Amino acid sequence: MTTGKATKKKTKPPSPAATFPIVGMGASAGGLEAFEQFFRAVPADSGSAFVLVPHLDPSHASILTDILQRCTTMPVLEAQDQMAVAPDTVYVIPPNRDMAVFHGTLQLSVPEVPRGQRMPIDAFLRSLAEDQGERAVGIILSGTGTDGTLGLRAIQGGGGIALVQEPATAKYDGMPASAIRAGYVTHVLPVDMMPAALLADARHPVRFVASTASAPVPASGMSRLLMLLRSATGHDFSLYKKSTIGRRIERRLAQHDISDIDVYTRYLKENPAEMQALFKELLINVTNFFRDPEAFDVLKRDILPQLFADKLENPVLRIWVAGCATGEEAYSIAMLLREFMDETQRQFTVQLFSVRPGTS
């Protein structure tokens, strides 16, 4: 079992989202060609900011900004520490730097781990998801390895959209294929079709506009839709947070250019593939360590002492973690139990089982 003190994730007020989408783009080998294709296709007045995190040689100056400036009339800048992100501008990470975004401002730092062990795309996309939430966009282009997969997981978990280059069109398909296998993708597209997909999302009032500009999904319409989904899949989402479900349904409406929930419900009846797509969209397959920290506090403070109040020495405890997404829930409970044993000076054997939705 994991030893040492657990580090619980503290809740904090959300960062103020920008009034425009910030698009984080990651690439490795073959990425230059993909970047050029993208910026030849995206209009200069899209209203989005583009932040590029390619894998660069840390010992050489980058000429990527000069190359990309030939492909677009948008300003292409090498990112600087504390630079505020602005729409219709392209930012490129400098060599031998890690980058994050905080309150819409770029934060640069010197890498703390060797080059071969770094995941700069994951790191940036995670910070983008945390900072911008539903307004964050993540794009993974050509490259080898798996960098970017976990970053897209964070983007999708925050309600943003994740685009991946169609592997057959990528010079190196490792990074796109990794993200697709993991399931953290909204669209799989050739690079030159990505700008149109982004603009389609941006035009929908639910996306990239103040939330007061659009009405929420009506309760009656949502109930009919969830009932239909339960009949088709056997899963009941009625106890999920209504705001979360509403946002994800609205995103499916936007992707099909449908503005009425009843029209979308009829569309679901006629298109079984869309039913499965919505089902996958509603599943919350993203989490983090000690998610909902108040629940873990109650478990440690109130529940564990009751469980062991009348137990003999070295009891055996079996714990099932239902609906486990990626493992953080199970490990969080394991760390919490380790803390409890250390603090109470009691030892017991733990058998910890975790199950993902849809598995047995």
Task: Describe the overall structure.
This protein is 39% helix and 15% strand. It is globular and about 75 Å long. The chain has 360 residues and is an alpha/beta fold. The longest helix has 17 residues, at 328-344. It has 3 domains: 22-193, Methylesterase CheB, C-terminal domain (Rossmann fold), CATH 3.40.50; 215-282, Chemotaxis Receptor Methyltransferase Cher, domain 1; 293-354.
> What is the level 1 CATH name of the largest domain?
Alpha Beta
Number of helical segments?
A: 12
Approximately how much beta-strand content do the residues carry?
Answer: 15-25%
CATH fold topology of the largest domain = Rossmann fold
State Rg.
Answer: 23 Å
CATH homologous superfamily assignment of the largest domain: Methylesterase CheB, C-terminal domain
Q: Span between N and C termini?
A: 23 Å
**Class from helix and strand fractions:** alpha/beta
Number of E strands: 11
Query: At CATH's second level, what is the architecture of the largest domain?
Result: 3-Layer(aba) Sandwich
Major beta sheet, strand line-up: 3-4-2-1-7-8-9
Low-confidence stretches: 1-17, 204-214
Short structural summary:
By secondary structure, this protein is an alpha/beta fold. It contains 12 helices and 11 strands.
List the helices and strands and how they pair.
Layout: E1 22-27, H1 31-41, E2 49-54, H2 64-69, E3 76-78, E4 89-92, E5 98-102, E6 105-109, H3 120-132, E7 136-140, H4 149-157, E8 161-165, H5 174-182, E9 187-189, H6 194-203, H7 219-233, H8 242-255, H9 261-270, H10 272-282, H11 293-307, E10 316-321, H12 328-344, E11 349-354
Parallel strand pairs: 1-2, 1-7, 2-4, 3-4, 7-8, 8-9, 10-11
Antiparallel strand pairs: 5-6
Helix pairs in contact: 3-4, 7-9, 9-10
